[in-house]
Design a protein that fits this description.
The structure holds 2 protein chains of 2 kinds. By secondary structure, chain A is mainly beta. Chain A has a domain at about 20-95: Immunoglobulins (Immunoglobulin-like). Helix content of chain A is about 0%, strand content about 55%. Chain A is built from no helices and 11 strands. Chain A has strands spanning about 5, 10-15, 20-25, 30-40, 40-50, 55, 65-70, 75-80, 90-95, 100, 105-110. In chain A, strands 2, 4, 5, 6, 9, 10 and 11 form a 7-stranded mixed β-sheet that branches. In chain A, strands 1-3-8-7 form a 4-stranded antiparallel β-sheet, with no helix packed on it. In chain A, strand 5 and strand 6 (about 55) form a beta hairpin. Chain A is globular. Chain A starts with a strand and ends with a strand. The relative contact order of chain A is 0.34. Chain B has one domain: Immunoglobulins (Immunoglobulin-like), CATH 2.60.40. Chain B has strands at about 5, 10-15, 20-25, 30-40, 45-50, 55-60, 60-65, 70-75, 85-90, 100, 105-110. In chain B, strands 2, 4, 5, 9, 10 and 11 form a 6-stranded mixed β-sheet that branches. Classes of the chains: A mainly beta, B mainly beta. The interface between A and B is medium-sized, with 22 and 21 residues.
Chain lengths: ~110, ~110
């Protein structure tokens, strides 16, 4: 079965460092989503793209987060500078219409 | 504001003990209601999409139903391997964005 691939699976770094998370969507899918999951808030949508164009990033802290799709096979989510409150699991999902299919996430810990 | 609320937060069942999980939603112009299963350390795995009131879908021991205000995930004669967190999400008409509930953590004891 085709899967969404996310790297790295785990990341531990110190406050203030830049963090880059990568996602390879399923081939043929034209929409890509970034979510953040925490115990308190659950799954929250940060941003999404259709055909590589950003459609909505209203869920993302603009001052430190950025999301891009350099090409159809790669989506990136960057945090600079990182803060302890950014510690969470970040998921990428892709789809063609619905449903969305998720990767296994990047577990991020900011010390 | 669009909201999806799931209950209970956690549910413990004995193997073979059937039950239902609830998902109530206030999503204007609901386009679809989605159920996902999430295992520890994994991403959500798609189970079902429901589009209109009265619709039902089944997969093995799971059956999802939809009314105008809520959806139910019925689990018949569950097994320990059904233990997971079940997530419900709604999408608004004209958008691919999903609003997720916080999930029901199901534990099935042998």
């Amino acid at each position: 079965d085709a899967r969404v691939t996310q790297t790295p699976r785990h990341k531990v770094t110190e406050m203030g460092q830049e963090v880059t998370m990568r996602c390879q969507p399923i081939l043929g899918h034209n929409t890509v989503f970034w979510y953040r999951q925490t115990m308190m808030q659950g799954l929250e949508l940060l941003a999404y793209f259709r055909n590589r164009a950003p459609l909505d990033d209203s869920g993302m802290p603009k001052d430190r987060f950025s999301a891009e799709m350099p090409d159809a096979t790669l989506a990136t989510l960057k945090i600079q500078p990182s803060e302890p409150r950014d510690s969470a699991v970040y998921f990428c999902a892709s789809g063609f219409t619905q449903p969305q299919h998720f990767g296994d996430g990047t577990r991020l810990s900011i010390l | 504001e669009d909201q999806v609320t799931q209950s209970p937060e956690a549910l413990r069942l004995q193997e073979g003990e059937s039950s239902s999980l609830n998902c109530s939603y206030t999503v204007s112009g609901l386009r679809g209601l989605f159920w996902y299963r999430q295992d520890p350390g994994k991403g959500p795995e798609f189970l079902f999409t429901l589009y209109s009131a009265g619709e039902e879908k089944e997969k093995e021991r799971l059956k999802a139903t939809l009314t105008k205000k809520e959806s139910f995930l019925h689990i018949t004669a569950p097994k320990p391997e059904d233990s997971a967190t079940y997530l419900c999400a709604g999408s608004q008409g004209g958008s691919e964005k999903l609003v997720f509930g916080k999930g029901t953590k199901l534990t099935v004891n042998p």
